[in-house]
């Protein structure tokens, strides 16, 4: 299984965040800046832990940075449109009810 998220920074396409694997483990997360974004002259890094570079980032650094952007609690439930019997895949966790 693979989940992807198109990443935009200041309304410019930066690349795709990918989570592959059936366990949704931190090691399954990958992110790489698009070369045209990095070489575009006005590129901004997502964070100091994900500086601009040509190589792919993988593992916990990606999972933790992107996972900490996600909401929790009532806001997460509203976004997921969860009900008691529905499972949501969020952050660095396996499928869990909201």
From TrEMBL:
Q: InterPro entries recorded for this chain? A: HipA_N1 (IPR017508)
Which residues are in the HipA N-terminal subdomain domain?
A: 26-81
Concerning NCBIfam families, the annotation shows: couple_hipA
What name does UniProt use for this protein?
A: HipA domain-containing protein
The species this protein was found in: Frateuria aurantia (strain ATCC 33424 / DSM 6220 / KCTC 2777 / LMG 1558 / NBRC 3245 / NCIMB 13370)
